[in-house]
Amino acid sequence: QSVLSQPPSASGTTGQSVTISCSGSSSNIGRNTVYWYRQFSGTAPKLLIDTYNQRPLGVPDRFSGSKSGTSASLAISDLLSEDEADYYCAAWDDSLDATVFGSGTKVTVL
Amino acid sequence: QVQLLQSPAEVQMPGTSVIVSCAASGYKFTNYGITWVRQAPGQGLEWVGWISASNGNTKYSRRLQGRVTMTKDPSTNTAHLELRRLRPDDTAVYYCARTELVRGRRGVDNWSDPWGQGTLVLVSS
């Protein structure tokens, strides 16, 4: 069972927006930076964005990250078919002295 | 460019050990740590542990503590993960990732990028 909670799935049509939530606690999201990773089927995860909206080169600004209290969110605007993937949130947990991941959210573009 | 290349798939019997290697290139190896993450078939990501860039300090998953050892060899820019007393539920793809783990004014920044291609470890009799 994952320490961070995410909805198992999210969907939208091309051009719409979708938001994925990530719920944690004061020992992880409440005090540390949250990162989002995207994983296409059969490939390794890739860093997508953090809660301060810092993105690696090549990640479009259609992706935005935010945090409030012990919850974080990833928003995807102008949804494209290529956005279909699994999305994971992650943060350092001071109590566990470990990185904790969300259970993952599968995004489907209808 | 920055790249992590992992060793090929392994098939091991329960009770034995496995070593997965991760060769880094394109950056100064001692400037970043290495995180190991595993993913069982059809499941999510599970953090295995982290090894420091500079001094070899390690942090391990409590679930795997006692069975896992991480090492780094700066002379070959390679990190290794050893998992002992293998069980069938250790079957997973194991990933390494270049990691910065820093505590600052806004808490802990802990990002991993890029990731290796993954190594399948199959534990079966």
Task: Walk me through what this model shows.
The complex is a heterodimer of chains A (110) and B (125). Chain A is 0% helix and 46% strand. Chain A has strands at residues 9-12, 18-23, 34-39, 46-50, 63-68, 71-76, 85-93, 98-101, 105-109. In chain A, a hairpin with a 6-residue loop joins strand 3 (34-39) and strand 4 (46-50). The mean pLDDT of chain A is 96. In chain B, strands 2, 4, 5, 6, 9, 10 and 11 form a seven-stranded mixed sheet that branches. The mean pLDDT of chain B is 96. Chain A binds chain B through residues 2, 31-33, 35, 37, 39, 44-47, 50, 52, 56, 88, 90-92, 94, 96-104, and chain B through 35, 37, 44-47, 49-50, 59, 61-62, 95, 97, 101, 106-118.
The biggest beta sheet of chain A is recorded as:
6 strands, mixed
Our Rg estimate of chain A from Cα atoms comes to: 13 Å
- Protein chain pair with the most extensive contact, residues per chain: A-B, 28 and 27 residues
As a whole number of angstroms, the C-alpha radius of gyration of chain B is 14 Å
Quantity of strands of chain A, as a count: 9
Roughly what percent helix of chain A?
Answer: under 10%
What percent strand of chain A?
over 45%
Number of helices of chain B: 0
What is the averaged pLDDT score of chain A?
96
Order of helices and strands of chain A: EEEEEEEEE
Helix content of chain B: under 10%
Number of strands of chain B: 11
Largest sheet of chain B: 7 strands, mixed
User: Which class best fits the helix and strand makeup of chain A?
Assistant: mainly beta
- Average pLDDT score of chain B: 96
Strand percent estimate of chain B: over 45%
